[in-house]
Amino acid sequence: MNNRLHQAFASKQNLLNMYFTAGYPSLHDTLPLAKSLVEAGADILEIGMPFSDPLADGPVIQHSSAVALANGMNLPVLFEQLRELRAAVPETPVLLMGYLNPVLQFGMEKFLQKAAEVGVDGLILPDLPLDEYDEQYHALFQQYGLKAVFLITPQTSEERIRRLDALSDAFLYLVSGPGTTGGTTLPDLQAQEQYFGRIAGMNLKTPRLIGFGIADKAGFDRACSHAEGAIIGSALIRALEDAEDAPATAGRFVRGIKS
Amino acid sequence: MTPTTTSYQQPSARGYYGEFGGAFIPEMLYPNVEELRTRYLDILADPGFQAELQLLLRDYVGRPTPLFEAKRLSARYGTRIFLKREDLCHTGAHKINNTVGQILLAQRLGKKRIIAETGAGQHGVATATVCALMGLPCVVYMGAVDMERQAPNVARMRLLGAEVRRAESGSQTLKDATNEAIRDWIANPVDTHYIIGSVVGPHPYPDLVARLQAVISEEMRAQLLEKTGTELPDYVVACVGGGSNAAGAFYHFLDEPSVRLIAVEAAGHGVDSGHSAATSVLGTPGIIHGSRTLLMQDEHGQITEPYSLSAGLDYPGIGPLHAHLGASGRAEFIAITDDEALAAVSELSRLEGIIPALETAHALAALGQLGAGPDDVVVVNLSGRGDKDLETYLKNMDKLL
Fold first, then answer.
1. Of A144, A209, A227, B86, which has the highest C-beta tally within 10 A?
2. What does pTM read for this prediction?
């Protein structure tokens, strides 16, 4: 089963996956931001479904989520926006990232059906337990042609990485180090190199993107030397915080990374 | 969704009580939680651990706590009321039963740093206390609003050497303090143990905390036998925020169907007022802090802000054990308003010379709604003392006098 994600990984190198929170900075920025990011060279769009209690996110995405919710973002609104978005950027893979509770309240099958219908390619649901995915939802994801992206951290055991690799049909999201998204402390580079090297040496079937704490061109280039590409989120959101023209700022941000 | 449990005490292998529980956690937390899950039962069962725990519970915490027959209160309600005096524990509440156990567990897991969340501050104080005792660094997350409401407990934690960090997100109360503690654990995945303060969070925490608090009902049974000739009362009454004191008070009665279990929640300004923390009434199934349970949320699954005058009860969820006890009908839930709780503070103070914590006062305020008769034995878990709430009581003197 092929989709835009597979095509992107098959045809491109050094993929840039740009995360942004749906409905931020204002409710109807989702579409213009997506267009601007893609025009500037983003290879994958990861759109955050805002949640009141985003446990794996640092202050920047917590804030953008709270603003987006206050702006009136919710799943029915987002699905309407995604329909237009898909028409505007027909080739670019689109992922939805978010926490399980809003998805469960919407209804998992209804959510998958809607996501497939509006042209979403894959999902990142960090608090969906692997066992529950495997036993209850894997077949349903496949039925709707949606790819599940799993996270790996420096503490994930080899056995578990092998299991995630076997279950994955998209890419593995390598969390660069300990901490929530948008970390500002400098990483332990030596430990990080060792970790990336260890994963690279495992001969996994699934491609990898590195995320968490990647904020600029240097970070992106370094990630690309260890994996198929990288994910940037908080640094973009930070740039959008005071932006007068959010789409233009987003475009400049991506050109700065991809130049 | 997963196999149901045969006993109310024991969750399934994946931590489910009926349809509630589990471990809905991001990968960053998985190794920590998995380490705890695979080791906690063996550590708790280890004779060396038990010897050390029992010694500390006796000589440091001051257990067993008395079971006091409250005769004037009994006369007031026309039934036989006993108070389980958890307020006499070191640090003034039941919370230390759990922290003493978890600090010994943390040592056996080789952890060098302790984090905790706190609402009313009692769990934070109890954690700071055992960290001082064991010489481990301690960081306690507390909502900015709670730091104002419970200033004396902030001072106590600092005096005990703990660092108190303000949680500024969301409603700036217990939910947000818990979020921040979890984020700290994500950032410190190797050397840190998270001492969660209630029967909430991902499996195995609800079971771990329930087992450590179960000493309350274990003692009750022996004390009731001595005082009434039978181990089983007719009612056990406890307040529920997350539900740790209730879990401890109910634990050894869970599989005794003749004992009515009464869980008392905070109605705040009233269950239908929009300012309430009565999760069993207002909550629907969902996921909070890694557990599938009842929680207060809007139609889109966003967690809503609970309200109670009491900082220990304004949690938008309840432990999965309690959600199951409610759904199965094993426990009955009663909601008590701020004003009813304040009246109960005054009543116990004047009738028995005991100033209860505001949380505990919710349980006391339910006494009039039990329908207990003169031959019935009612045990109220007196989970904490009121010293920390004096400022709140002073501000509400008109409702107390």
1. B86
2. 0.96
